[in-house]
Write a structure and sequence with these properties.
The chain has about 170 residues and is mainly beta. It has one domain. Helices cover about 10% and strands about 45% of the residues. The protein has an 8-stranded antiparallel barrel with strand order 1-2-3-4-9-8-7-6. A hairpin with a 2-residue loop joins strand 2 and strand 3.
Length: about 170
């Protein structure tokens, strides 16, 4: 059964992308400083961060506080499925090797999250799997910078008076 995923572009102390997967009633989350790459040769650092409530999936606006100050947009959103038929998503995360198929507005195809170190903030690698959706020439961060919900860029959201949530 497909579950939801969201990638939020977040301009906090540094610009990054929050990669979030719906797992057991929460959004399991990783901060990806350079954002996902469509090139399977690119291994992107993904730092595991605290889980978020499912309601956070559609948030756009300016935040101040708990999750880091700054503007947030819904950069991509859709559904995903677990490619590891033998284990639940929670089990694959616990084992440190996640394989998913994304069906998003910008990203589609297979992706792997591989844990490389543990500790308080475990580090992972986010890697595009070699499939028909892989494209080393494609750079969606620069060619598709806008929100899939509102059509606005992170800069436009940052200048919005009051930083209210934007809905499409």
């Amino acid at each position: 059964m497909p579950r939801r995923f969201v990638i939020q572009k977040h301009d906090a102390s540094s610009l990054h992308y929050d990669f979030r997967l719906e797992v057991d009633g929460v959004l399991r989350s990783w901060a990806v400083p350079k954002g996902p790459s469509a090139d399977p040769r690119q291994k992107r650092l993904a730092v595991e961060v605290e889980d978020h409530r499912l309601e956070y999936e559609n948030f756009e606006g300016v935040i101040d506080g708990r999750y880091g100050a700054g503007a947030v947009i819904v950069w991509d959103q859709g559904t995903y499925r677990n490619l590891d038929q033998g284990r639940s998503m929670a089990e694959t995360i616990e084992a440190g090797h996640v394989k998913v198929w994304l069906e998003g507005a910008k990203l589609t195809g297979g992706w792997t999250l591989q844990r490389t170190s543990g500790g308080e903030k475990p580090q992972w690698l986010l890697i595009k799997r070699r499939d028909d959706q892989a494209d080393a020439r494609r750079n969606p961060q620069s060619t598709q910078p806008e929100s899939v919900r509102s059509g606005r860029t992170i800069e436009q959201v940052a200048t919005d008076q009051g930083g209210r949530e934007q809905r499409k």
